[in-house]
Amino acid sequence: MRRPALRKRAADxxxxxxxxxxxxxxxxxxxxxxxxxxxxxxxxxALAFLLVLAVLSLSYAIPVRIYLxxxxxxxxxxxxxxxxxxxxxxxxxxxxxxxxxxYVRIQVRKRLYWVQRGExxxxxxxxxxxxxxxxxxxxxxxxxxxxxxxxxxxANG
Length: 157
Fold this sequence. Notes:
- This protein has a domain at 44-117.
- Helix content is 64%, strand content 0%.
- The chain is built from five helices and no strands.
- The longest helix is centred in the middle third of the chain and has 55 residues, at 44-98.
- Residues 74-101 form a coiled coil.
């Protein structure tokens, strides 16, 4: 009694595993369907995989951004350090020049207009080349409070 029931279940399992087009004959002249109407979308596994990829990419994006920012900061600091080294070396060269007596003598003659005994001092005066003792001119005020303060200064003076 069990045997016919087992055979029937096995036959049902086999027939349900086959596509519907293979189970019944097609009508004469009808086009054969190659794909079932519900197929073609993303499966559950594919959606889960895409979700995992999106979460991983978002979780790696922030550390990568921080890493790249730190690399840029390191590069900026390295360039600033190199510029500072160049500045220090130029200052050391300048200090070495001031240890030379001849350089000091030239600078004193040039900046302070000192002359040796017996020399006639000749100082050329070309516009802004020498400070004539004039007070510095202030730029024209541009805002209302600068105008107010300049008029208060003018009234006091």
